[in-house]
Amino acid sequence: MRALKAAVIVMGVLIVVGTAALLVLIVQKLNSTGTAVARAPTVLDEPAGTRIAGVAASGDRLAVQLQGGGADRVVVIDLRSLSVAGRIALAR
Description:
By secondary structure, the chain is α+β, with helices and mostly antiparallel strands. It has two domains: 1-33; 42-92. It has one helix and four strands, in the order αββββ. It has one helix at 2-32; strands at 51-58, 61-67, 73-78, 83-89. It has a four-stranded antiparallel sheet, with no helix packed on it.
């Protein structure tokens, strides 16, 4: 009888510890997804007088339309790596 009581107590403790560990892992996973922008800032290095005229997102890409500081242009940013994926100059 004593062995059964010890086994029940040990299993109960394992269930509580396992559930707590699972909850901690789920919270950590939820906090880590969707925070790609917080990893590092992206610097576009555009000339003075440049302003953002529009922004559009598609999947893991962000297109930023820039005006001023030269010819109008679109800069495409990869949101996974936070780097400039491409630049497109627009003719006037």
